[in-house]
Prior knowledge:
68% of the residues lie in helices and 0% in strands. By secondary structure, the chain is an all-alpha fold. Helix 3 runs antiparallel to helix 5 (96-106) and helix 7 (122-137) packs antiparallel against helix 11. Belongs to the PqqC family. GO terms for molecular function: pyrroloquinoline-quinone synthase activity. Its EC number is 1.3.3.11.
Amino acid sequence: MNNPSTGVLSPAELEGALRKIGHERYHNRHPFHRLLHTGALTLGQVQAWALNRYCYQAAIPRKDAALISRVTDRSLRREWVHRILDHDGWGEKEGGIDRWLVLTDSLGLDRDYVVSQRGVLPATVFAVEAYVDFVARHSPVVAVASCLTELFAPDIHRERIAGMLENYPFISESVLVYFRRRLDQAPRDAEFALDYVKRNARTQSEQQGVLDALTFKCNVLWAQLDALYAAYVSPGTIPPGAFDPSELPCLR
């Protein structure tokens, strides 16, 4: 129960408050995702989404390295380092970034162009770098809390897999391997992060910090979709230098 003298939430109450934020703010509610999952987008609009999302995917290992650099708890570092390997891969084993490039390859985007991120929307870059900076500047418990959007990721991945397979002839099962893999990884990672936050956010200030962190992360994801919607859906004003589906040089 909430301690009335300190305002500190119980672990269960803190979890409930975090889940409420996700229910209200997670980007599955964004209109762009509804268009994506129902087959309402053109190939060019799907390309734009995959290209811009690559910017976010590629930044995840940097975000996690920034978190690790602030951590003095060896057990947390040992647990967290697998997230970098999950995305970057190691040895001959591919990671999430490789699997995302399978998707962009299948959509007809040149791999060098995708990796260069030259065509990424300016707002996407700002949002992604704001996230990396946030994690680098805040305490471990707050930084860990910013990753708790993973609590809500499996549902959107399942919706995306079903919707894209059903509605887009240019999408096949083999190119959605990134999302299939995250159905296993995200719950594992979210369970650890949630437990860590519940155990280590002990004061009212710390608890408010983790709630604000999750809100911030939801805003980061939402802002990326706002940028996509404004550039490629309505009113469709593509910033100079950003990916333009009508220009063939960026296509294979």
